[in-house]
Write a structure and sequence with these properties.
With about 325 residues, the chain is mainly alpha-helical. It has 13 helices and 4 strands. Helix content is about 80%, strand content about 0%. The complex is composed of two ATP-binding proteins (LsrA), two transmembrane proteins (LsrC and LsrD) and a solute-binding protein (LsrB).
Amino acid sequence: MTDHALAVTKERAFSRRKLGTMREAGLIAIILTLCILMSFASPHFLTLGNFRAMLMSFSVEGIVVVGMTILLIVGGIDLSVGSVVCFSMVLSGSLFLMGVDPWSASLIGILASALIGCAMGFFVTVIGLNHFITSLAAMVIVRGICLIITKGTPLSLFTLPPSFKAVGQGTLYGIPYVILIFVAVVAIFDFLLRRATAFRKVFYTGSNEKAALYSGIKTNQVKFWVTVLCATLSGVAGVIYMSRFGAATPTFGVGMELNIIAAAVIGGASLSGGSGTILGAILGIALLSVVSSSLILLNVSVYWQDMIKGCILLTAVSIDHFLHKRKIA
């Protein structure tokens, strides 16, 4: 009975990944269609400068999307990613201003972000709280810590050494380091999620936690480490932002979780767990970036932009809910 349950779980995971591949193809078609339409609507859209700006804008967020996607696959969610990104910036920046070299300060900021993930993982796996309420509390607490550290005042970090600034501002053969780091993170975790045995447990846990548990998978450990991974990648993104902008603002990242979750869900990650791909999530954030750039070039009010993004998220969640109900039926 247990083997049969696991077999059913594996079959569902496989079918959802197949559905994800179809969704990825659909997203590529939508993105290309929007690009073609915008090429007629605005002469500034199909320019190297605009595409570079779009790539830079979603590359760092894309690193956070990778962690969020894996967490959604396991059946969790993290509303604190924007706060953790800000926390990593603020802590690293504060340590630098206190005399710590930027590389060591950044490492401490990333490790501290990982500890936040450990704390959330503890409350989820040991105390028994769900990811939503745990990460909601963490979002508020961590944002408060950012305000306490900075006293509500942005930190100016223009004295960062050029070697460190190069991470966020430098290029290699004309390609920004930010984009290269983003591509490397995506490639690594996409490969692991598709091929590594350890990451298959993420799909099995998200598809049917009880069946996975009865089959010998330590589901709490899987959920714990995936939560830590998401927070750690948020910390990495925070350090890159600090290097790119040369500043650390305590209000940075407010609302970032909306873009991150929307991108992952649009890309095929299910809020009920068990499905999703890194490529799909990246296509999701690429779509949102194209939409944002298009709205800006068309002089659409920023208030309408937020509403449109919200409608896109609602549509994606509705489609996911419909497909999940149809699959259960």
